[in-house]
Design brief:
Blueprint (H helix, E strand, L loop, with lengths): L1 H12 L31 H20 L6 E5 L4 E3 L16 H9 L7 E5 L8 E5 L1 H11 L8 E5 L4 H13 L6 H15 L4 H8 L3 H11 L3 H4 L10 H10 L3 H23 L7 H17 L7 E3 L5 E9 L2 E6 L7 H17 L7
Helix pairs in contact: 1-5, 3-4, 5-6, 6-8, 8-10, 11-12
């Protein structure tokens, strides 16, 4: 991974740049100490002239800017924030899904593969932000709070604009199985407008991706959270099946049925979690969502929702639900006071939201 990471950085900074990777130093050291040269012997005297010429040439190239030196620092992770342009959600990281990395860092006596960071100028609470290496940052932070207070966050500092930072983070995350298709899709959707002026072709060329594949990712990114909530986890939303779902949502009538089914599924998932039972499999959830439009056509007409008061009389009923809005009727003679009417309205709106028929559709 270290080799790949160096390749990523070198490719992004310049097509012709060769990045030097010195050993980690304390944060105060902006420059790396010179490498000690072996004492000349009779055996290597002839090669020494060539070595010195090569060293002088390398130093000259470094001074001219042809070659950039990549500085590695040992940082306090508390002074390093996470760049929001990364696909990985920091809040989703945990001891469980970082356990292997944590154990590796402890076994090796520290972090061996450096993260990539850039300097922060606009926030006094932080000195750097992570472009690539979010899991390493989380793991080091966790270790510092669990018996390893002296553990340091190893990072190499790069000068990157937002678009280059996005490409670097994307290259690293492509090989990560724990970054879900939905996370990556939504990250691409934000980047499309933020970095590429909504030009899909330009973005595909810069990322060296198929335009068709990227288009599907952007389409999946548009699936509403209310539908995603039907799944046990956003990580269950895979590109190929989710693309069919995103296409189905383009039809207004189908979308209404899918939203209703998603609300029911979300309630079922919540009930299963509360009882400690296994969640509904992603394949079953997807099938029910895609079948919802056909099921809605075949299903008998549902009676209007009626909220009944303490006296057994109807207090409020739903007369109609359509694109223009929701029509409600408050019944006279129900015996309900103002507080009961407010409760009836609140519970009725909550019922409609669960069915995917609320005013926020």
């Amino acid at each position: 991974m270290a080799r790949k990471q160096s390749d990523y950085l070198a490719a992004l900074l310049s097509d012709e740049v060769e990045a030097a990777a010195p050993t980690p130093t304390a944060p105060a050291a902006d420059e790396q100490p010179p490498v000690p040269m072996p004492a000349p012997t009779a055996r290597n005297e002839r090669a020494r002239g060539t070595t010195l010429l090569g060293r002088e040439s390398a130093l000259a190239r470094l001074a001219s800017g042809e070659v950039r030196q990549v500085t590695q620092l040992l940082l306090d992770p508390g002074r390093v924030r996470i760049w929001p342009g990364n696909a990985r959600h920091y809040a989703h990281l945990s001891e469980e899904n970082c356990r292997e990395l944590i154990d590796s860092i402890v076994a090796e006596g520290g972090q061996k593969v450096p993260a990539v960071v850039r300097r922060v100028e606009d926030d006094p609470a932080y000195d750097y932000e992570v472009i690539a290496g979010t899991r390493r940052h989380w793991s080091i932070s966790w270790l510092r709070g669990h018996s390893y207070p002296d553990m340091q966050f190893v990072a190499q500092v790069a000068v990157l604009d937002d678009e280059a930072a996005f490409r670097l983070a994307d290259l690293e995350n492509r090989a990560r199985k724990d970054v879900s298709d939905l996370e990556r899709a939504r990250n691409y959707a934000h980047a499309l407008s933020d970095h590429y002026g909504s030009h899909l072709t330009r973005m595909a060329e810069r990322l060296k991706l198929s335009k068709g594949w990227l288009s599907k990712m952007i389409k999946v990114a548009g699936i509403p959270d209310a539908v995603i909530d039907a799944f046990a986890s956003p990580a269950d939303v895979q590109l190929k099946p989710a693309y069919a779902l995103a296409q189905a949502l383009d039809d207004g009538k189908s979308a209404a049925a899918i939203h209703m089914a998603a609300g029911i599924l979300a309630s079922e998932q919540a009930a299963l979690r509360q009882r400690g039972q296994p969640a509904l499999p992603a394949a079953d959830v997807l099938k029910r969502l895609l079948d919802a439009p056909r099921a809605a056509i075949a299903a008998p007409k549902v009676e209007p929702y009626i909220w009944t008061g303490d006296l057994g009389r109807p207090v409020l009923s739903v007369q109609s639900v359509n694109r223009q809005g929701v029509t409600l009727r408050f019944h006279a003679g129900s015996g309900a006071d103002t507080d009961m009417l407010v409760d009836a309205l609140r519970e009725t709106l909550a019922h409609l939201e669960r069915q995917g028929l609320g005013l926020h559709r």
